[in-house]
Every structure is written in C-alpha cells, then in structure tokens.
C-alpha cells in the first residue's frame, strides 16, 4: 500500500535540508571553491523546489475551496519575500554611500529593479555578463533569481487557473493538467537550447524568465501529479528510496563536475538537474527514506529555514570584505559564511518571521506598545525591520570600512561622545518613566490574520468560519488529536500560513496528554493569541477535555476559551444525529463562539470560559 504523505499537516524537515544543499552550493560557487564549479546550479534546485511548493499550496486551496484564493496567496508571498529584500537593498545602498560613493550610480538601477522584481531583465538590457561579473562582483548581482521567482508567482497561478478552466472538469483532469504543464516546461527548455545553439548571449539565456521557467514548471508538474483532492500526496516507498539516492547523487555530481562554461549547461544540464531535484523531492516526501532522514537532521533544518536570508546577504558580505582577504581564501570563506549566517539569523528572527506571521503593521504596533510599557530601557527593542536594518548596516559598514585603504583621523576624545549619549539616554528615560503607559487599542482581527486548526467538528464548521472571518485559513481533519499539532504547527510555520491568531478545535477524539498543550504553547509562542474551543460530546474522556480548556485559559494569558460546548448544551438541535458534529446552524454557532472569544481579547477581558 502506498503511504500517503500530507505535507499540509506534517512538517517535512528534509525539504529544509534540500534548501541547505542549494544555498551552500551557491555560496561556495561565489567563493570560487574549486570543488563546486557548478554551484550556480543551486539556484535551479531552488526553482524546482519552489515550483513544487507553490503549486502544492495552490492546488490544495483549489481542491478544498474550489478557488485558488489568489489575493491571499499573493499577500502571503509578499509578506514572506519582500521585507527581507527591502532591508537588504536599503542596507547595501547606504553602505555604498558611506564606503564607495562613486558606485552609487550603479546601485540605483540595480536597487530599483530588485525592488520591482525585474532585475533579471534589467541586467540583460544593460548588457552585463553574469559569468564575467565575479571578477568585479556587485552586491546585488544575485537578485536576478528572486525576480524570476516573483514573476513566476504572479503569472503561474493565472496560467494554472486557465488550465483548470480548460481541463479541470475532464475525467482525467490531472493528466491533462500535467501534460499541459510538461509541454510548457519542454517549450522553455527547448527555447533555452535553441538560443544556446544560435550563439545568444549566455546571460540572456541564464537569466531570462522564459528560458528558466522550465525548472519551476517541472516542480509544478510534480505537485500536479502527486497532490490529490483530499490534499495528500501519494508516495510509494521503494521508488521513493531509490529516486532520492539517485536524485541527490546527480545533484552532487553536477555541482562538483559541471563548470559554468560547460556547453552541457544549456544543452541539457539544467534539464537533468531539474529532474534530479524532482526525484529528491519525491523521496523526501516519505520521511522514512534514507535521504529524508539524513537531510532532516537539525543543522540542515536550521540552515534551510534561513536559506533565503543567507542567499540575500552572502553576496553583499563577499563584496564588502577587505581585499586583503582575497589572498587568504580560507579566512575569506569563513568570514563570508559566519557573517552571512549571522545576518540571515537576524533577518529571520526580526523581519521575515514576524512579518510573514503578523503582516507589516502588527509587528510595529507590538514594538511601539512594548516601548510605551518600557520603564527602564529606552533602547529600541528587537522585533522590527528597522532593527535588522540598523544591525545589518552596522555589520556591512564595519566590513566595508575594514577594506578602506586609510582610516579617518581626528574627532572627539575617547569617552566624550559616550558621556553625552549616556546623559541624553538618562534624560529620555526619566521622561519615559514620568509618562503613564497607555494600552494600545485592540481591533477584531480580520480573517487573513487567523489560522484555525482542528478535528472533524472544526471541519464541519469551516464554511461558517470562512463566512464569519473572510480570508481565514482553516485546516480541519477527521480523527485528529492534540498529538498531531506540533507537526502541523511546524509545517505551517515553514509554509508561512500560521498567523498571529490561532484557533484550536480539539478534544473530540481525546483529551491532551500530560505536557502536550504546554509544548504546543511553547511552539506557538507567547506573542500569538490562542483561541481554544471547548469540545462537546458524551465520550468518557470529555469531562477532562473540557476542564483542560478552562485550566489552560487560566494558566496562560494569551489563551481564550470559545464556548462551543455551552452553545451545544443549551440547544442540541445545533447538532447532527451523532450529537457531536454541528448542523449548518450549529456551525454558525461554532463560529460565533470563536468570534466571542476573540471579542474577549479585544476587550481585554478574562479569557476563561464557564464550566460546561
């Protein structure tokens, strides 16, 4: 029997491990590592993986809601990708102004095209060469690949919607959809080979969206073939075991053995690499395979989770390192890796994760509220994009200044500015302490800031929740227990679908085990608002499950109880014949209970529900 793998409800650590291989290949390529002449292929691995993941999300939305929910999809992609790019470009621009102002003219066009996600076409139009640029590398020379991905994210959902309109209602719709996607990928690769054969510019071939779309489309093809209408992906164990070993081996061989000037690169190398990545992904989806277990170890997960930031920052760091390190490749490589990892960790913690989870405005609100509550510390706390911008700029400026030929002399005496700064901080602190802190006004969250996870009762109430909170992300499943939550939460964190407000509807299939809910709260974090729905039923464990909701709401300030049990007890006509699942009217009552719990948060009321 094939093993179903539902990456909607199961976090797959090895996918982050595959990202690690991709980003480290690119990093070592830019460090001119002799054993990774084909490290540029790491970008192609990213393309195919992105095509798979993005298409999987789109297909699940279509199968569950009969809609791709494009506005929500594009909003989540923007939250995930744009903030870190803005911070990187701004930091690079400022560092250029401070360290090498003569290069500002070059940076303007690169910066604007990067922020508009058309950098690849800007580079092509300027006649720049990707393959010669590393003799004089620019800090934004890698932004072309992000532009291709963003262009794909904008266009592919529309193409997929068109394909569904044409073929979605046919008996073998999956094969029609897959065939059309394969044809598009083949056309892209064929166009690449044709341009190579007629002697077109290598940069035009390598950075063109039309020529590189093939890798992304093959990832999309894998999603179309694997994702079923119930949201799961069907994986067969033995083929997965073999495909993973073969696919990973091919990736390693190509990275280690195919230089960037090889005629095979455009004549089939990128095609082979894309299929090898597909094979690796297929294997990884079955977490029992050797490849999935190896790539899923903790260090690989950590790097992969931050691979976007590592990719963004490694080239600016490389460019601004002192030229004296060029003669010390080991020291230079170590410095690039350490500084890139440091900046990526800052970016993930302070910019990417907060904004993808809560949007752009909410992290600033939380930061400002924390500042108003501060009594002793007037230094801006972490958690805002301006903090990572300041920190990243400091790091890059320090690196850049180390490379300047001479130091600037003169200035204040040691300690003079420090004393003045401390005096100013003391005065500001006294003023802050004199002012009474005011609590910020809370508003009812909109649906796009709410994630709901639960069992079949929540699944039966999903339409009512979507009507009550348009844009809410609902993930309900039959026979689901609290024990499934850690992997669900981790997966949603990785996919960027876990919002600030989390509704948990469990207990129908058993009470939480000792320490289980505590672990869940630790995973979600104290900055999230958790709505815990009180279950209803006559099972032997139900009294404990209901009491746990009360106990957890008492124990944690960010947990609020939704009184679904109370509503069902007061009116059993809200229930179906099994006296567990809600009718259509009952589903509305379920959604109302969630709304009332959120209203308690808005009004800063006690979130402890009454006994049921």
TrEMBL record:
Pfam families: Acyl_transf_3
Domain of life: Bacteria
Molecular function per GO: acyltransferase activity, transferring groups other than amino-acyl groups
InterPro entries (UniProt xref): Acyl_transf_3_dom, Acyltransferase_3
Alphabetically ordered keywords of this record: Membrane, Transmembrane, Transmembrane helix
Sequence intervals crossing the membrane: 37-59, 80-98, 151-168, 175-193, 213-231, 238-258, 264-285, 330-351, 388-408
SUPFAM superfamilies listed in its UniProt record: SGNH hydrolase
GO biological process: lipopolysaccharide biosynthetic process
GO cellular component: membrane
Ranges of residues in domain Acyltransferase: 13-345
Record's protein name: Acyltransferase 3 domain-containing protein
